[in-house]
Amino acid sequence: MNRAPLAELSGIGVRYRKGGDVRHGLIEIDLAVAAGETLAIIGESGCGKSTLGRVLLRLQEPTEGDVRYRGESLLALKPHAMRRRRQAMQMIFQDPLASLNPRMTVGETLGEPLMVHRLARRWRDTVEPVAAAMRRVGLDPATVRRFPHQFSGGQRQRIAIARATMAGAELIVADEPLASLDITIQSQILGLFEDMRAQGGVTFVFISHDLPVVSQTADRVVVMLGGRIVEDGAPRAVFREPAHPYTQALVDAVPVPDPDAARRRQERPAAAVAHGTPARPDLCPFAPRCPHLLPACTHTMPPLRHVAPGRRAACWLHGDWSPP
Which of 80, 147, 179, 287 is deepest in the core (most CB within 10 A)? Predict the structure, then answer.
């Protein structure tokens, strides 16, 4: 059963000027996030994952395209209307120590969203909601007067999660929320996300580079490279039978304990190491490294098309191409 889209990106592009050059952060992004799903975005560093997350919440303005939330264009909203909309849209940043105000106690950090969105009239009215939020993420309310530097990395990430939920967020973008955390803490944080989704119906966009975690937690995975979406679909299908050579390279980079499986990987054509100038924005960003390079790959960018039920890929290996 298809779920209605909660948030949508249509024709999104982000360009930067560096000196006399134009750099492309995002290129022709079309993406819908269904209400209640967990969508994972994966790809190498610099591929545009975090930029996409910020644009989705309108923390960064796109150069072109539109961002819609519940069918309403966010780019058309005036500042006061956008502030009201932000109550439902929150972000958890990769480094909680950098995203938490070092001059504010935990109580002030968690109480501030209630005051900003006028869910509490006085600071004293935030005491009980803050204590409840701390208990919900496994923190002792007795530590409410402590500052961020007095907590461990895992505890700070819990504070950031609690802050994101204070105003009743429907959509949370989590940007590498498990980075620098040990396995035990990662498991606890993922458990918190699952509880929030099950009990509160929260929709997650989960930005990650950890394919095993994504395969266990996400309903759908989007693979990005060079500012483009090159593949998306259900994690099990995408990781078992990648439709794009770049996805295959990502899967092959994950260590496996099975020697036979590792040997079979070595027998497949490997992606080359990229050298020289970046790929052209009008061509497949994987072309300089692709072991399956076709004549079409040097002429034009393949469209992101359906290659199987629930699967899309942007690759000339899937689809007809004839030279102009």
Answer: 287
Copy the structure tokens of residue 117. Answer: 């969105």
**Which residues in the chain show pLDDT less than 70?**
1-3, 256-279, 319-324
Instruction: Provide the token pair at 30.
Output: 């079309």
Question: Per residue, what are the HEC states of the chain?
Answer: CCCCEEEEEEEEEEEEEECCEEEEEEEEEEEEEECCCEEEEECCCCCCHHHHHHHHCCCCCCCEEEEEECCEEHHHCCHHHHHHHHHHEEEECCCHHHHCCCCCCHHHHHHHHHHHCCCCCCHHHHHHHHHHHHHHCCCCHHHCCCCHHHCCHHHHHHHHHHHHHCCCCCEEEEECCCCCCCHHHHHHHHHHHHHHHHHHCCEEEEECCCHHHHHHHCCEEEEEECCEEEEEECHHHHHHCCCCHHHHHHHHCCCCCCHHHHHHHHHCCCCCCCCCCCCCCCCCCCCCCCCCCCHHHHCCCCCCEEEECCEEECCCCCCCCCCC
pTM of the model: 0.89
Kindly list the distances between the CA atom of residue 283 and the CA atoms of 27, 269, 288, 298, 302, in Å, as whole numbers in the listed order. 11, 21, 10, 7, 8
Q: Would you tell me how many other CB atoms lie within 10 Å of the CB of residue 264? A: 12
Amino acid 148: pLDDT: 94
What pLDDT does residue 35 have? 93
Q: Which two tokens stand for residue 101?
A: 């105000």
**Residues near 283 by beta carbon (within 8 Å), at least 6 away in sequence:** 297, 298, 299, 300, 301
Task: Say what the pLDDT of residue 269 is.
Answer: 58
Query: What does DSSP say about strands 171-175 and 89-92: parallel, antiparallel, or unpaired?
Result: parallel
